[in-house]
Amino acid sequence: MEMEWQRDLAGLGFAGIGRETSRVVLRVIIPNFANVGPALLSALLLAGAAAFCAHFSRVASDPDYGTSLPRLVADSAALGLLISAILGLFLLCTAAYALAVASLYRTGGDLLAADRILKEDLPVVPLARLLFTFLLVAAPFLVVSTALSVAALLVLDDDITLPLRLLGWATAAYVAAVCQLACVASVLEDTELFGAVRRSRDLLAGKFRAVVCVLVTLDGCIIAVLKAFTALVVDDALGLRLAFQVAAVVTAFVALWGVLVVTLVAQPVIYMVCKSRHQEVVDKAHLE
C-alpha cells in the first residue's frame, strides 16, 4: 500500500506520534533501507556496556588498580575511544535519518532521494552544526547529572536522596527532549549552538508533554535493554548456559537495533509534528 505523506500532523499527541513513527518505520524505513548504522550502533552500545561493567568490576576487585598508572591510562584510553566511536556513529545516524525522513515528507515519499542521503550524499555542513550543538547541550547535562548522582551517593538520608533522584530524572527528561530536537533542528535548519536550543524550545511549545513522553519512553527502552544485557550476559545473574547467553546476546542486539531505528525516526517525525503545529514547512534547501 502506498504511503501517504501529505498529512496534517499538527494535532498528533503522544499516541499519534507513536502511530506515525511506527507507520514510517514499518512501511518505509525497514522494507526499503538497510539500516546498517543502527545495527553498528547497537553492537557498539552492547560492547560499551560490557566494557564498562568489566572495568568497574576490575576496579572493585583490585585495590591496587588505581596505583598502576600505565594500566589506568590504557584502560581509560580504550574506554574513551569506545565512547567517541559510539557518539560519532550516533551523530552520523541522527543526521542521516533526520535528513532522510524530512526528505520523505518534503518530497511526498521520494525513496531514491532518501536512500541517496543515507548512502552517499550526507552533507558536511549539517554534521558540523550537529556536532557543535550536541557538545553544547551535552556538557551541562553531564555536569548536572554527575553532580546530582554524587550528591545522592553522599547523602544517605532517604528523605533527601529521593528528591535528588527525582530532580535528576526530571532534569534528564527535560534536557533530553530539548537536546534531541535541537540536534534535529541543527541538521534541518541553518541554526546551531544556542540558536538551535532556542529553536528547539520554540518548536516544543504546545507539544512538550507529548514529545517528552515519547522520547522518555524510547530512551527508557534503550536503557532497559542495556540493563537486561549486562544482568543476563555480563554479570550472568541467572547462571545461564552458553547457548542461552548467546541467545540473550542476539535478542539484546535485535531489540536494541529496533529501538534505535524507532528512536532515530521518531526524532524527525517529532520535528515535523512540531513544525506542522506552528504552520511551518521544511526548507528544501536544507535537504540538498
Detailed description of the structure:
The chain is built from nine helices and no strands. It has helices at 14-32, 36-61, 69-107, 111-119, 124-154, 158-188, 193-204, 208-234, 242-277. α2 (36-61) crosses α9 (242-277). The longest helix is centred in the N-terminal third of the chain and has 39 residues, at 69-107. The model has no long low-confidence stretch (mean pLDDT 77).
State the gist of this model:
The protein is an all-alpha fold.
Report the principal-axis shape. globular
Q: Tell me the strand percentage band.
A: under 5%
Structural class: mainly alpha
Helix content bin: over 70%
Total strand segments = 0
What is the H-and-E element order? HHHHHHHHH
Q: Radius of gyration from the CA trace?
A: 20 Å
CA(first)-CA(last) distance: 28 Å
List the uncertain runs.
none
